[in-house]
Design goal:
The protein is an alpha/beta fold and about 325 residues long. Helices cover about 45% and strands about 15% of the residues. It has two domains: about 190 residues, NAD(P)-binding Rossmann-like Domain (Rossmann fold, 3-Layer(aba) Sandwich); about 110 residues, UDP-galactose 4-epimerase, domain 1. The strands form five sheets. It has a six-stranded parallel beta sheet. Strands 6-9-13 form a three-stranded parallel beta sheet. Strands 10-12-14 form a three-stranded mixed beta sheet. Bound molecules: serine. Serine binds next to loops.
């Protein structure tokens, strides 16, 4: 992995992934692309950037032709809550974009990464310690897209020998870029509001456990998986990943260690709650640990400390 093209570079993961890849492989070796222009003073202005609508395969091909990457990281996608509001658009963007990216990877022999999600599980999946290989019958459009995406990655690996690699990300928590349109976003918003307002109203109900991970661990996991010896990778669809299984009261208690007056109340959003209820409480990450050494560094309290401090500095 030396020359990388990244789609969805202005998204929640893409923003930090581009910077990390540039620091490892050189600014000029990482082409960031997104459907929108970055802000004029964006952190991404330290290297090449191109506008790209991932549903435009011809343009994607042209960018690969001219940049000549050896790796494609396809991050552009609509998250779960937004996808549920506009399912047909979500299908077109999430599946159309992924097919284009896989086809480009096949044609130009690129190593390939795209994230799946805990959203690829559904209400009939075992909820606790969810195995790597298990029932996947999600009930959201986002989940349907993710399962289809996982199967496509496996298919392109087996049928066309494309070096596809993927993970099932849990909710990702970052102070750099706020997410947009996910079900797990509460676990990011809560930190920003704790610093700005001293209180937060959660749209996810008390006792709703979901897996989460700090963004630094997520980015490190992508790099580690992409650098891993392919021979050791048994799972070519997507590896379960998580660093913690948490619910809102646990985040509250952790924040109160630093901000004792922080208050948490609830105003549950039925749509996002239904999605959260259909996902696992905690997933088993033993395959990722065994096959390529996944080893997240942040637990809830360590993450809380870093989040609150970074948001205060802003
Ligand atoms: N964080 C994502 C979402 O909530 C899950 O993949 O949609």
């Amino acid at each position: 992995m030396k020359k990388i093209m990244i789609t969805g570079a202005l998204g929640q993961i893409g923003t930090e992934l581009v910077l990390k890849c540039r620091s490892l492989y050189g600014n000029d070796n990482v082409l960031a692309t997104d459907i929108r222009e970055p802000e004029p003073a964006s952190s991404l202005s330290n290297g090449p950037f191109e506008i790209l609508d991932v549903t435009d395969r011809k343009h994607m091909n042209q960018l690969v032709e001219s940049f000549q990457p050896d790796t494609l990281m396809h991050m552009a996608a609509l998250l779960s809550a937004k996808a549920e509001k506009n399912p047909i658009f979500a299908w077109d963007l999430n599946m159309g974009g992924l097919m284009n990216a896989l086809e480009v990877a096949r044609e130009y022999d690129l190593q390939f990464f795209t994230p799946s999600s805990i959203g690829a599980f559904g209400p009939s999946t075992p909820k606790v310690n969810t195995p790597q290989v298990t029932i996947q019958r999600p009930t959201s459009m986002y989940g349907v897209n993710k399962v289809a995406g996982e199967l496509l990655c496996q298919y392109y690996f087996e049928k066309f020998n494309v070096d596809t690699r993927s993970v099932r990300f849990p909710g990702l928590i970052s102070h750099v870029k706020e997410p947009g349109g996910g079900t797990t976003d509460y676990a990011v918003d809560i930190y920003f509001q704790a610093v700005r307002q001293g209180k937060y109203t959660s749209y996810i109900a008390q006792d709703t456990y979901m897996d989460m991970m700090f963004m630094d661990d997520a980015i490190d996991a992508i790099i580690q998986l992409m650098e891993a010896d392919g021979v050791k990778l048994i799972n070519r669809n997507a590896y379960n990943l998580s660093a913690m299984s948490i619910e809102p009261e646990m985040v509250k208690a952790s924040i109160q260690e630093y901000l004792p007056d922080f208050e948490l109340s609830y105003d549950v959003d039925p749509q996002r709650q239904a999605i959260a209820d259909s996902w696992p409480n905690s997933i088993d990450v033993s395959c990722a640990r065994a096959e390529w050494g996944f080893d997240p560094k942040y637990d809830l309290n360590k993450m809380t400390e870093v989040m609150l401090e970074a948001i205060k500095q802003k």
